[in-house]
Amino acid sequence: MGGILFLIFFLLSSSSDACDRCLHHSKASFFSSAPALSSGACAYGSLATSFFAGHIAAALPSIYKDGAGCGACFQVRCKNPALCSSKGTTVIVTDLSNTNRTDLVLSTRAFRAMAKPVLGADRDLLKQGIVDIEYQRVPCDYGNKKMNVRVEESSKNPNYLAIKLLYQGGQTEVVAIDIAQVGSSHWSYMSRSHGAVWVAAKVPAGALQFKFVVTAGYDGKMVWSQRVVLPASWVAGKTYDAGVQITDIAQEGCDPCDDHIWT
């Protein structure tokens, strides 16, 4: 439980600083090649291009949040009425952008998806290079898919465990993870290593269960997968069903933001 208790102050203090539900006005550009995003700082690797049909993005540090923003979903639309639809597209954050020219750098597929469904509009939009946009945090919708726990190749059963979460729903950020042997009341915490990767140097023996602390409401919530998530014989490189899906919405004040409503 140590990791969970340590995060209480973080949850309460950060909610007043962020404004993920607000409508932001900025600019967006695009990567000309998908591999540039699939090798991103979130460490999703080649899996990144499978999220939302390759509608992925690199985000500035205030969205990336030292990796806590990895997997966050945003509705993005450009503001050129001659070329762009009013619907825009949904993207998922898979990388950190170090440019100060735009808030988001989209995959080419996501950038083109903002165009009107008119012949040639997507091509003309790409020619713009950088466009004015509006964007807003939205829940990630994976349908009936459960959240998955992927065991990283660097893991060594039973001495070292590195994981990343895939297909997390809702509109939340995981800020703590605790693990325990199934049936045990002794929990130990995992630490964020980099991007979406969490690690534990002392791994309990046997089958493992997980507790996740996520931003939800105006503070935080614990999501406990009360089942075997990783079997005793877990294997590096494999992905396992977490048995739960996070559907909560993190509600945060919009005073620092530009607008409040997507119209």
From TrEMBL:
PROSITE patterns the record matches: EXPANSIN_CBD, EXPANSIN_EG45
CDD domains documented for this protein: DPBB_EXLA_N
One CC-aspect GO term: extracellular region
Superkingdom in the source lineage: Eukaryota
Protein keywords: Signal
Signal peptide: 1-18
Family to which the UniProt record says this protein belongs: Belongs to the expansin family.
Name under which the protein is recorded: Expansin-like EG45 domain-containing protein
Annotated source species: Capsella rubella
